[in-house]
Structures are given as structure tokens and as C-alpha cells.
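ok so i was messing around last nite and threw this chain in just to see what happens. nothing serious, just curious
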Amino acid sequence: MSSSRSSWSKRSLAAQAMGHVDPITKAVVPPIHVATTYIRDEDNAYSSGFVYGRPDNATIREAEEVLAMLEDAEAGALLFSSGMAAATAVFQALNPGDHVVASKVMYWALRNWLMTEAVRWGLVVDFAETDNLDALRAAVQPGRTKLVWIETPSNPLWTITDIAGAAAIAHEAGARLAVDSTTASPFHTRPLTLGADIVMHAATKVLNGHSDVVAGALAGAKADEFWARVVSIRKMQGAILGPFEAYLLMRGMRTLHLRAAAQTKSAMDLAVRLSVHPKVARVLYPGLPQHPGHDIAARQMEGGFGFMLSIQLTGGEAAAIRTAARVRLWKRATSLGGVESLIEHRASIEGPGTPCPADLLRLSTGIEDVEDLYRDLDEALKPA
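result:
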């Protein structure tokens, strides 16, 4: 970063995509580079720094630079074709026989991959309630555990893991700490500054924020041998994001601070009002003082408590499903973090073995008027 930009805030840098101006057209919006191959110099070198489209691309580099800035990532950032591609690349960089400890409550697709496919790679995986540092410490095996993977806030129960505490436990045992921060975003939490080694995002969600891109991202604290292996895995497996998707993602990150602030404010408002609703048995949201992880979240979530919450209904599973069927403004759909508010009965999606209660509805708060969002939920809840 040039000295003229070094004093700019992250919000300003993101808003201007690091201040880049196209040198040819002077456009303030970065162009989309779609070339798959590049001219060699006369001595067969590549002085431009680009060789082929599978491992690298100029548009992707620019989006990665924005994310690395937001995450304070010394090693930089890597964009992948999906969140799952990003997450599994970290596990694939381990060696057969390595021991992994992961959050018991986490994104269901990755949990399923760890329980099925990871063993085919020779990994040994144990799940722990990582929001309880004593339980995490008991699960970690010094000298054998090579990776601790936590998700905080955890989807869809929104438990909070102490990132600094988990990092201390992992490092003491000789392991790395990776944090799935998809439901927090760099606006809310920056895990690398709290001691994590790698932070992962399903960039499809709030980083992009418009429900029109499937993407994943990793950011690293240190450009060490392990990070180099992750870089190589993306290169060799062709898991890089496409240039058009990278362009859309960069567009989304330019407004991240505005969107995340508005979504977080509305989520807090809804959590407070729903916590006293007669048809709601429990609200799961770390912003509420009664949430068991509230104090930790207040300490490490510098941008507020997030845009995700869940509610459990007094009428049980049937009432939850009926309520989701009655909403009009909220949309019944999978995913989270977009500008539109989404509602979902997660147990139906995750199926047998899910830790998600059957009476739970997951809410992803968008940027609509919060009064409209509450009224729509209230009307849907009343018959339940």
C-alpha cells in the first residue's frame, strides 16, 4: 500500500477498491480481465507476472487485495470457486494421519464432508463444543493435533467461541487455528488479529451480499510452508474463482461496511422484540445479554453482534414450519448475508443427525425496513 493510502480507513479503502484507477481508461471501476493465457517475453519469461488463467488472474488479484486489507492478512488472500472449495483446501493441505478438532456446531455441509470424505484423506477428526474452552482443551492432543477449526458465531445456534483462547490452546499443542468467520465478516470480527492463523469465508454470503455469486475465500496470517501448500492446492486443482465472479465480489465488498452495519442494527432490534413475543420460546442471538457467549462476543465482535439470529417457537416443529410458510416479506430460502431477509427451517434442510432443534427458524436479516420485517414475522407467528 502506498504511503498516501496508508492512513485511510478500511471502510474508505474498500469503498474505492483500494483506490485503483485503470491506467488506460482512467476508469474508477476496475475492469474485468478474462484472458486465459499471456504473451511470453522474448527470453520466455513472464515479466507481467501472469502465466495462465488457472492459477492467477488480474481481476481476482484485485479482489484478493481488498479482502487481505480487510482481514489484516500478512500472507494475503485466496479466492476459490465456493466456500466449500476454500474450506476443504485447508484440510487437504494436512498430511494423512493428522488429527483435527472441529466445532460440533458448524456449517452442515462441511461437517458432513469431515465425517465422510476427510477420513478418505486419512485425517482423524474429532468434534468438540469449542465455545467451552475446557472441552476444546480436552479434545486437542498435543503433538498430534495439527488443526483446530472453529466457526463463530456457529450456524445456526450462534454459539460464540473465544478466538484468542482457542488460538492459545491450538498453538500450545503445536496446531494451527482456522476460523470460519462467514457469519461475522471482517466488519464484525478479524480473527487474524486475535491469534488465528487462517480465516475462511463463504464469500457467497455477506462479503458479496447480493445473492448472485458463489465464492469462497481464505486469508492467512503468515506466508509459511502450510500457506504455500494451500496456494498450490488451489492452483493444481483449478479451484480458483472466475474473473466475472471476482468482479461482482469486489463490487459487494465495496459496500460491506454499510450493509453489515444496517443488517446488524436490524438483527439486534428484532432479537430484542422477539425475545418477549408470546409465540417465541427462545431467541438465539449473541447480542442479547442473556446469551451465554455475550461477553466474549462483545469483546471480539468489534462491529456488533452480527446479522444472524434464530428463534425457537413455543408451538414446536409444526408451528415453526407453518410460520415460515406464512411470511411474505421474508423469503423462504437457503443462504444468508444478502440484502434480502431470509427465513429457513434448518432441521428440514440438514436432515438426520443435525444438532439443530426441530422448533428452530434461522433468520438472515437484510436491509429492508425493520418495522416491515417485524410486522411480517409477527403476523406469521400469531396463528402458530
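not much to say yet. The first helix runs from residue 10 to 15.
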